Amino acid sequence: MGEAHVRTLDDLSAAPPTSGERAVRPAEKGRLARLRTPRSPRLWFEILLIAVSYWIYSMIRNAVPEQKAQALRNADWIWRAEHTLGIAVEHTVNHAVNSVTWLIVSMNYYYATLHFIMTIGVLVWLYRWHPGRYAAARLALFATTGVALIGYYFYPLAPPRLMPDGGFVDTVIEHGTWGSMASGNLASMSNQYAAMPSMHIGWSLWCGITIALLAKPVWAKTLGLLYPATTLTVIVSTANHFWLDALGGVLCLAFGYALAYAWYGRLPHRLARYAGAAKVKVPSPLKA
Q1: Phi first, then psi: what are they for 168, rounded to 5°?
Q2: Nearest Cα to 85, choosing from 243, 201, 254?
Q3: Which residues pair with 45 in a beta bridge?
Q4: Backbone dihedral region of 190: left (phi > 0), alpha (psi from -120 to 50 degrees) or beta?
Q5: What is the DSSP letter of 201?
Q6: pLDDT tens-digit profile of 85-124?
Q7: By Cβ atoms counted within 10 A, which residue in 100, 167, 207, 258 is the most buried?
Q8: 149 CB contacts (<8 Å, ≥6 apart)?
Q9: What is the pTM assigned to this prediction?
């Protein structure tokens, strides 16, 4: 009689595929798996993507019908809700800071410019120093911005400075500050009733979290955490947003990070600094 041969699990995992079986190779993971694998960003693609995405975002945001009556009703509701919650201090902050000319003028310029400068700066920093984390962090930012458009469409909201009986000071008009598309001569170029959620908070918090988690020096981490806190003070002092608008921005950012986690399997800061620096080993089910 012939000698019996028992094939172990290791033999099965090492043996070549028999008829009807097909070896699964890394190159055959499929397009979806490749897209979900962090890769080093390409400069020309990122510049084009950011430019096109911001253009689309601005076009959609400004194309949302400016429902003035509904936006003012929503502002009244938000203001009453904040009084109920005991957090309606925007009027006091607005007038107190407005009385210090150099401070409020600085905040006006801060509101008009740093929103873009810091966000682009952090993207460049990620691209240069954390390329393996760049795509996931960028996805979180883009998803945050994209979901904000839903808020602009379904919940038009007038900022405090546009409430006729609110008593707020429009600090850009008051001090003739240049640069803000939220007030003055440039107001016609921007949807004035897209205050909920606040992307000044969504973007600044994204910047702050990214810097705090990835920067090495303690001073950089500290500045990262101070940035969204300062932005919150600015948007309230200039009467561009309510506190609850800021909460809306936080919720949008949470959605952005959740989507990035679902797509890449990890939060951006948990990924390898350089794409391909760490391989995730998937055990064979036969060896489990």
Answers
A1: -85, 155
A2: 243
A3: none
A4: beta
A5: H
A6: 999 999 999 999 999 999 999 999 999 999 999 999 999 9
A7: 207
A8: 57, 60, 61, 64
A9: 0.81
